[in-house]
Design goal:
Order of helices and strands: HHHEEEEEEEEEEEEEEEEEEEEEE
Helix content: under 10%
Number of helices: 3
Shape: globular
Length: 226
């Protein structure tokens, strides 16, 4: 099924979503388009913090990659706050989930092609011009505490995540609580981020744990492999 047909079939849900979350002067423009979305929890808030509100500037659940089953829906589970700072595309098979105190901020010109999971109990902030590849996870919580047998000290289950501007997050990267990347960072495939990375801008990091593989490079957002 084409994206246009998916959008047409989801039009009632799109209208409901916009008028449920947004003020009337924004909702009437239908800035958020839903394609194939499971609205699991419709709570919390959605904010569009942009000087320009346009129809379809935010696209959720559209088909992004034919290698993945296009019938897989994007799951929406919101009990906190989701803030969009501009244009955004998140592909099919993805998921957005916030706890009661969770906050997700998505910068302008954000693109996640497919099967991206974003789970926040405290704060996940993406800068502008971020690109996210397949099967990625951003999760600022462990969901559960652990207890030290010797000291009875409890772990801190949730810590904020911050992804800098112009980051490229490659396939199957896992970004866990406390992670922070500078602007112009490329994160290589299958890496696991767990902390704040004090590295130069224009760097590639990769591995478990990640190490700087190369410096002085960045992704050209205007070109793609054909």
């Amino acid at each position: 099924m084409s994206n246009k047909l998916r959008l047409l079939f989801s039009l009632p849900k799109t209208i409901y979503f916009n008028f449920f979350y947004l003020p009337f002067n924004q909702a009437i423009k239908l800035p958020i388009w839903l394609y194939n979305v499971n609205l699991h929890k419709m709570r919390g808030q959605v904010i569009i913090d942009s000087a320009s509100i346009k129809p379809g500037m935010i696209k959720l659940g559209n088909v992004g990659n034919p290698l993945y089953d296009s019938c897989n829906r994007l799951t929406w589970e919101n009990r906190g706050v989701v803030c969009f700072k501009g244009t955004c595309v998140i592909g099919h098979g993805s998921g957005i989930s916030t706890g009661i105190n969770g906050y997700i901020e998505i910068g302008n010109n954000f693109f996640a092609i497919t099967t991206t999971k974003i789970i926040s109990f405290v704060s996940i902030i993406f800068g502008d011009n971020v690109r996210v590849s397949w099967e990625t996870i951003f999760m600022d919580t462990d969901f559960h505490e652990t207890i030290n047998l010797n000291t009875n000290e409890r772990s801190i289950p949730s810590k904020p995540i911050k992804i800098g501007n112009n980051n490229w997050i490659a396939v199957r990267v896992i970004v866990l609580k406390g992670s922070e990347t500078p602007d112009f960072t490329i994160v290589g495939a299958n890496s696991i981020l767990t902390k704040s990375y004090d590295i130069p801008q224009y760097s590639i990091i990769a591995g478990v744990p990640p190490k700087v593989m190369k410096t002085g490079v960045y992704r050209d957002l205007n070109s793609n492999v054909k």
